[in-house]
Design goal:
alpha+beta, four-stranded mixed sheet, 52% helix, binds protoporphyrin IX containing FE, transmembrane
């Protein structure tokens, strides 16, 4: 039947239809050919790169690599910091992986971390430029991602000595206390019913940072906060664009680039407005005497108008990049630490009780927690350290090798991506007894601190690229945790048993809980 119809001469209409079909076929054919061509091109590019990597014979050991994807298949079943830890138990503390196009080494012990972050500190004092930081951070001109050199050195100096200094952190004490008190009032209004503590803590961290950075002059804060939170998501370094950096057409196809550009445009507009508002409002005391009441934009503006002694000054773009660093590096890290600490204590009611007793004894009938007495909370501070050991907010520190270098018997070629696995290091049985156990009193008698000199404990990193926001972060964490312990008793909703609380981690640049922590608060009255 089909056959006989096909044999009939085609009518004018069916002819044009055939022409259309043929044109479409031709179009489809061209598209397929083009896709095929690009596919071959992609394979050739990747094979060329992996061949050049194979030629480097003294790379550290690592699992067998598949064509094109390398070792990506080794990372799909669990969050990367877990998967990398499991692989390191087989291949050693310095291991080589091929992540798509990217040649990477994974550091999983304090000894190798010392080599990378201390002995060869300058060689590894860089981070690979990932697509998200290029777009969001003004061509990677922030502190975290700007290339190692004079610009980064000056920026870090300004931030360490002026922007994030202990004196500056103290000057924002009234903001922290006011906002934490607002949190207490919000929780108190929900006493007896579950509150989403995770949501409250993350929003508190952004609000405190925004007020410290923008002061009172800002009207665009409410628009800015959700955008800054969104900017955090693509910073893990495991985006398709970071794994296949040369396949730029793939970045466009995946939609990530467009999405990042959209967020960037919005953030940029808001930051311009806020900085201009500061310029218009002016601060008569800029650059003079005790300027502790300045907000962070005022502080940064000092370096626009008054050069440093080395003749260095900040452009508006530089300031915007630093401000973004504060939000991306400084908010979720603190909030997630408080969140994990609360979850760990809820699972162990005796520890929760002890920590509450300590806070309530130190602050007694004063009715609220005050920052100056926080160092007296020995148990709580040990709990914070233990939380940062077991759940480091930045589980994988991203670095890049600036020039070829030898670690032990292995060669690390220039541009190799380096991932320091803090999750592995913090749980290394060589340094930690019962490493998987949350031991609240582990740090009570310990002299280990956050300065990055004990490489088995580096939640804030180590060496030149170490976190400049330690004082800022700890001030947030200590005040929030003490306040939650002082004002409220806590229990799980729906009769859930403490030991059943889910502690699953999510995947991302920041190690967060997969599920939000919902708890029922009961108000504690100091007279009790
Ligand atoms: C619990 C809180 C925090 C933790 C655990 C943390 C952790 C880290 C880690 C592990 C690094 C990488 C260090 C390295 O490469 O050796 C880092 C870098 C950085 N952090 Fe933090 N951070 C915290 C809070 C903050 C805060 C509050 C700020 C700012 C207000 C901040 C700003 C930065 C910046 C700008 C960098 C990049 C430094 C550079 O590359 O030179 N961090 N942080």
């Amino acid at each position: 039947m089909h056959y006989s119809v096909a044999k009939q001469p085609p009518s004018r209409r069916s002819l044009s239809a055939i022409c259309l079909v043929s044109a479409m076929d031709l179009h489809t054919c061209y598209t397929s050919l083009a896709t095929f061509f690009f596919f071959i091109l992609a394979i050739l590019t990747i094979l060329k790169r992996s061949k050049s990597t194979r030629l480097t014979s003294k790379l550290p050991p690592g699992p067998w690599k598949l064509p094109l994807i390398g070792n990506l298949h080794n990372l799909i079943r669990s969050p990367p910091h877990h998967a990398l830890r499991d692989l390191a138990s087989k291949y050693g503390p310095l291991m080589h992986l091929q992540l798509g196009e990217v040649s990477a080494v994974i550091v999983s012990s304090a000894e190798v971390a010392r080599e990378v972050m201390k002995t060869h500190d300058i060689t590894f004092a860089a981070r690979p430029p990932v697509l998200a930081t290029k777009i969001l951070f003004y061509e990677s001109t922030d502190i975290g991602y700007s290339p190692y050199g004079e610009y980064w050195r000056q920026l870090k100096k300004i931030c360490t000595l002026e922007v994030f200094s202990t004196k500056r952190v103290k000057s924002f004490r009234w903001i922290r206390e006011e906002e934490v008190y607002n949190l207490v009032e919000r929780i108190a209004s929900s006493v007896g019913s579950p509150v989403n503590l995770t949501g409250l803590l993350f929003s508190l961290a952004f609000t405190i940072t925004a007020r410290s950075a923008f002061g009172k002059k800002c009207r665009s804060q409410d628009q800015f906060i959700p955008l800054a939170a969104e900017a955090m998501r693509p910073l893990s370094g495991f985006d398709i664009s970071d794994i296949f950096p040369s396949l730029t057409w793939l970045h466009a196809l995946s939609g990530t680039k467009l999405q990042l550009e959209k967020i960037h445009r919005q953030i940029d507009g808001i930051l311009d407005t806020i900085i201009n508002e500061h310029r218009t409002a002016g601060t008569d005391n800029l650059g003079e005497g005790d300027n502790t009441s300045l907000d962070l934009i005022d502080v940064l503006l000092k370096f626009e108008e008054h050069n440093t002694e080395d003749g260095f000054f900040l452009t508006t773009t530089n300031m915007k990049a630093v401000l973004l660093d504060m939000f991306t590096a400084g908010t979720e890290t603190s909030a997630t630490t408080v969140n994990w600490a609360m979850a760990e204590m809820i699972r162990r009611p005796k520890i929760l009780e002890k920590a509450q007793a300590e806070v309530r004894q130190v602050f007694g009938g004063r009715g609220r927690v005050a920052e100056q007495d926080l160092p007296e909370l020995k148990l709580m501070n040990s709990i914070i350290k233990e939380t940062l050991r077991l759940r480091p907010p930045v589980p994988l520190i991203l670095r890049e090798c600036r020039e070829g270098c030898k670690i032990g018997q292995f060669e690390i070629p220039e541009k190799t991506r380096v991932l320091v696995n803090l999750f592995s290091i913090g749980r290394d049985p060589k340094y930690w007894t019962e490493p998987e156990t949350f031991d609240a009193s582990r740090f009570l008698e310990s002299t280990v601190d956050f300065k990055g000199s004990n490489l088995e404990y580096i939640p804030f990193g180590a060496g030149r690229k170490m976190c400049p926001g330690v004082a800022f972060g700890l001030a947030h964490i200590e005040l929030q945790l003490a306040t939650l312990l002082y004002h409220f008793d806590w229990r799980l909703p729906n009769g859930m048993k403490n030991e059943d609380l889910d502690m699953t981690e999510s995947f991302g640049a920041i190690l967060r809980r997969k599920n939000d922590l919902h708890l029922i608060p009961t108000t504690y009255h100091p007279s009790q």
